[in-house]
Input
Amino acid sequence: MAVKVISFYQEGCMGCEEQTPILHEVEQDLGITIEEIDAVKNPHYIKEYSLRVTPTTLVIEGDEVRERMEGLVHREDLEAAIRRHLPG
Output
């Protein structure tokens, strides 16, 4: 089953600005794409994923959220959370 990683942010969020370069490093290290979505401009996601804070990063497998990280996530923790759900 495919694993999808989504990171929700909003403009003016200091934690979100710090999270962005970490997301890009993890993308390069793991050879994956992390979708970045502005939660304020896409409010249907707020309800769909019960978003309370930004940044929030989700690891989704199929239709199920397998990992939920709220607030700034350090690179090592983010990579470990994603690796748990990657094949092989």
Observations:
- The chain is about 35% helix and 30% strand.
